[in-house]
């Protein structure tokens, strides 16, 4: 599992020129799954994401977690996080999880986040979306479950 976490002042997902989801201060998380991922991997990643102290405290030091600031999360499925560009110029996605498995893992990931974070919103799995954000910092963290 891979996650790209961006600290945002606000973020939204548009589908067919209509806002589907919108958050204020918190994280925009782009998340992708590999064929080998399961609930155990997701549990580990959720724990890591929730516990990350990447938000500024009163002294502008990265000391606070998403829970400390009652922040919001917008979670968007992004299979392209598993792009393999080692050969040629066209990315390969052979390591990305397939549709049904990835959809189920995405649902599980969001349900686990929702157990701890008061506001978790999502994009639509497999939909053509426009993701808009106002990055704060900018501050972006990349997590790979194989490196935890």
Largest sheet: 6 strands, mixed
- How much strand content do the residues show? 35-45%
The number of E-state strands comes to: 8
Helix content: 10-25%
**Content-based structural category:** alpha/beta
Task: Give the overall pLDDT as a whole number.
Answer: 97
- In sequence order, what are the helices and strands, one letter per element? EEEHEEEHEE
Please work out how many helical segments DSSP would assign: 2
Q: Could you tell me the radius of gyration in angstroms?
A: 15 Å
Low-confidence stretches: none
Distance between the termini: 11 Å
Silhouette: globular
List the helices and strands and how they pair.
Blueprint: E1 2-15, E2 18-23, E3 26-32, H1 39-51, E4 55-56, E5 62-64, E6 72-77, H2 99-114, E7 119-122, E8 130-144
Parallel strand pairs: 3-6, 6-7
Antiparallel strand pairs: 1-2, 1-3, 1-8, 4-5
Helix pairs in contact: 1-2
């Amino acid at each position: 599992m891979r996650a790209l976490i961006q600290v945002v002042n606000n973020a939204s997902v548009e589908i067919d020129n209509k806002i589907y989801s919108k958050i204020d201060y918190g994280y925009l998380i782009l998340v992708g799954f590999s064929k080998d991922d399961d609930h155990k991997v997701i549990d580990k990643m959720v724990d890591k994401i929730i516990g990350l102290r990447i938000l500024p405290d009163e002294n502008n030091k990265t000391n606070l977690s998403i829970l400390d600031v009652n922040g919001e999360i917008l979670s968007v499925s992004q299979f392209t996080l598993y792009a393999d560009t080692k050969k040629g110029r066209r990315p390969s996605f052979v390591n990305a999880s397939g549709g049904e498995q990835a959809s189920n893992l995405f649902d599980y990931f969001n349900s686990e986040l929702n157990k701890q974070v008061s506001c978790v919103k999502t994009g639509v799995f497999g939909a053509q979306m426009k993701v808009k954000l106002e990055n704060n910092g900018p501050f972006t963290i990349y997590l790979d479950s194989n490196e935890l």
